[in-house]
């Protein structure tokens, strides 16, 4: 018994030490700044829908403008990531922050002025495309610093877990802040607060000293634009499918709580799923390094399938809470694993672009699935929307078994004079060129 207690205490100490090392890579200030800088992304989608719905009096117009915002994010994110790979994060994040703050403010003013739908949607596209991608940039920056210091896979995994947890918390807290602003003021207040928060934190993130450390690596690596393996594109599809799960769950939860006469519970149910997902993501750092990323991916997708099936049979509010909380256990681990595999498969000079692709995939998949699932829920009830979520989970699982992520290239990370050479997990697999 004493030996088991000692091992447990040692494992907990190692877990805490991993997080201390991860935070020490950038210092404690940058994670706080990057967390606050991510909140506007989580606030703007819901804030835009509520604002346009109130000012136009049309849910259809609100959906169209919200879709334009999501489309801008989906297309603009990878372009900003590519620019950061080529020119460094400082200039790109500063420019995007300025444009986005102005665009969001313009969107608020245009909505309040009740301009026509088309120009309003065009402003929303600009607002979405100029989101400075602080989450992917932070993940890329911290991973580059970890590799520069010769970090082992455990520390890299901890960085990914920490960043994934920050993403999950922001997507829970962001809509809650919008709801609070709407309750005490107006949807416009939520969007203006998001613009101000981004202007401050985006600028701070761009000017942080760690941004300059990436420039030599980015410029050197971007000189060679190597082709990506088919595995990388499969991972992007998997992330879009997880976004589809989010959108379908949101539609199903909204429809079911409305059918039960408790529409005010929809946000709380969705938040409960996000909180459990964040907890699971934070705990991922404790997974032994011997459990490879390919194995983690297959286990996570299997859990997504098994844990999403009960959604098809839920008919009571308490059961809905229980099912989504349990489902949340698989969400963040799946996302974190995809980020980890991507980090190992892409060359250093395309890392920011690739991380932005993944986040854009979540946004795009969520927007498309929300539109489709919403219509299905209206015509066939909540189970139809939840069936989309389960179907997306099944496709994720199929990808995880069909694809064997492998990189045969030498990965070069030149920050200073460091060179890192490694293969991704499962060297016996076959990579497909794309």
Percentage of residues in strands: under 5%
Please count the beta strands (DSSP E, at least 2 residues each): 0
Radius of gyration: 21 Å
Parts with pLDDT < 50 across at least 5 consecutive residues:
216-224, 408-434
Shape: globular
Number of domains: 1
What do the pLDDT scores average to?
84
Keywords:
Growth Hormone, Chain: A, single chain, mainly alpha, 434 residues
Describe this structure in words.
The protein is mostly helical. The protein has a single domain, classed as MFS general substrate transporter like domains (Growth Hormone, Chain: A), CATH 1.20.1250.20. Helices cover 78% and strands 0% of the residues. It is built from 16 helices and no strands. Helix 2 runs antiparallel to helix 3, helix 11 packs antiparallel against helix 14 and helix 11 packs antiparallel against helix 16. The longest helix is centred in the middle third of the chain and has 32 residues. The C terminus is likely disordered.
